[in-house]
């Protein structure tokens, strides 16, 4: 029966720790900024998952205690802010903490060699093309496997503004994209 029910004291402790952890989360998010829960890099994602794990563990179990949970939050937020600051000031550091985006489709053609390196299947890419409302491969200037694991689809209709080369800065194999008109 312990698996299903609980006494009033454990329930009260869950309420108290949930409120305290929620307050700590708000304070630290305000101090660290909105990047705290962004998906800008794999590191950001890992920190977000870690924060969620700490939150759940502290709320639902008596060990670790509340003070340790808040300290874990503080350390995770401080690490994230520190890494973000170092990434801004050091290309070498940014490269060591981030994957590089990779061109996986250019000028309406899938780049299977790059898709394999990014571990993206044709079905994964087709799903993202549908999400982007692509009606025909010829509309796709480029598709990029981003550092977060997302896929960005850069597409246009006939007569739309062409893709700016700068949007592919830092993208692996960007040279395979050739600007040109969208086919009819």
Structure description:
This protein has 184 residues and is an alpha+beta fold. Helix content is 50%, strand content 10%. It has 2 domains: 8-96; 102-176, bsu07140 like domains (CRO Repressor, 2-Layer Sandwich), CATH 3.30.240.20. The chain has 6 helices and 4 strands. It has a 4-stranded antiparallel β-sheet with strand order 2-1-3-4.
Distance between the termini: 68 Å
Question: From the helix content, strand content and strand pairing, which structural class follows?
Answer: alpha+beta
**pLDDT averaged over residues:** 87
Major β-sheet annotation? 4 strands, antiparallel
Percent strand equals: 5-15%
Counting H and I runs of at least 4 residues, what is the number of helices?
6
User: How much helicity do the residues have?
Assistant: 40-55%
Q: Please write the string of helix (H) and strand (E) elements.
A: HHHHEEHHEE
Count every beta strand, where a strand is a DSSP E run of 2 or more residues. Answer: 4
Query: What's the gyration radius in Å?
Result: 22 Å
The shape, in one word, is elongated
Count of the domains: 2
Main sheet: strand order: 2-1-3-4
Low-confidence parts: none
């Amino acid at each position: 029966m312990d698996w299903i029910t609980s006494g009033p004291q454990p329930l009260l402790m869950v309420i108290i720790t949930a409120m305290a952890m929620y307050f700590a989360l708000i304070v630290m998010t305000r101090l660290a900024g909105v990047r705290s829960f962004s998906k800008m890099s794999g590191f950001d994602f890992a920190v977000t998952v870690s924060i969620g794990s700490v939150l759940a563990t502290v709320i639902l179990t008596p060990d670790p205690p509340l003070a340790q949970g808040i300290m874990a939050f503080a350390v995770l937020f401080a690490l994230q802010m520190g890494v973000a600051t170092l990434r801004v000031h050091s290309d070498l550091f940014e490269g060591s903490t981030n994957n590089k985006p990779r061109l996986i489709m250019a000028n309406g053609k899938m780049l299977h060699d790059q898709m394999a390196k990014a571990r993206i299947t044709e079905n994964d890419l087709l799903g993202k093309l549908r999400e982007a409302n692509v009606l025909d491969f010829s509309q796709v200037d480029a598709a990029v496997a981003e550092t977060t694991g997302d896929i960005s689809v850069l597409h246009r209709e006939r007569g739309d503004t062409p893709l700016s080369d700068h949007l592919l800065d830092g993208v692996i194999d960007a040279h395979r994209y050739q600007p040109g008109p969208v086919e009819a």
